[in-house]
Amino acid sequence: MAYYTDNPAGRLHKLLLDLHAALPTDQQQKSKQAWTAIVDLIGNEAGLAGEASIISGVVALPAQIREAVGALREDDERKEHLLAGLDGIERAMNHVMMRQHLYGVFTAFATNGVVPQSAAVSSLSYCSYELHRSIPEVTISDDDLVRIVEMINDLLREVSEAELPNLVKRAMLNHLTVLLQAAHNVRFAGTQPLDDALFALSGSIGRTMAHEDLARAGLWERIKKAVQTINLMVSTGQATAQLGQSVAGVLDG
Length: 253
Description:
By secondary structure, this protein is mainly alpha-helical. It contains 15 helices and no strands.
């Protein structure tokens, strides 16, 4: 069965399979702390705060799955079936918080840590399909996500090098760093945190009148186009081909 990342079950399903693929042997899993393995897989751009946001977001996925299944128009027996195996994965998330090695996390729900063959992961796949069919979320393609990360990294570099008032520069760098981490976190958190970070960046510029300083530094139009382009991707999930020219315009000026 195909899996989908437009719901928390699908995102957790893919994350567990990706973790196992990155460290497939017992020896590798026993030598790597699960906490570190997850952060390395996702990518951390925001220091300790980014690390905390990654881990807290990942361990919250089982609760989000329960909430999403609870919202389905299905009887209780059907919902219980969709949540089969989630108890073991919740135990695994507790092991992550306790900084146990990856093998201990995997064996909480998979015999001998063989994640792809575990009943819990198969159940996640089935649950993901049902959530995809009933209440899918907006998604961003991998190619679009790469372009978003490129845009944000370019803006971080340009803001860092620009002649700006210290308060404006620090605020912009902080917001762009949060936005970059949210982009990395899409693979497990979905697009809502990215949308929230984008809104916070736009609001900060408006409240502080920073656009005047950014305009003097020649950055305002580029930032405005980047915000508009990312917002379009997040709000509509349009395909890369349709948005490619717009993204290229932001990157190339």
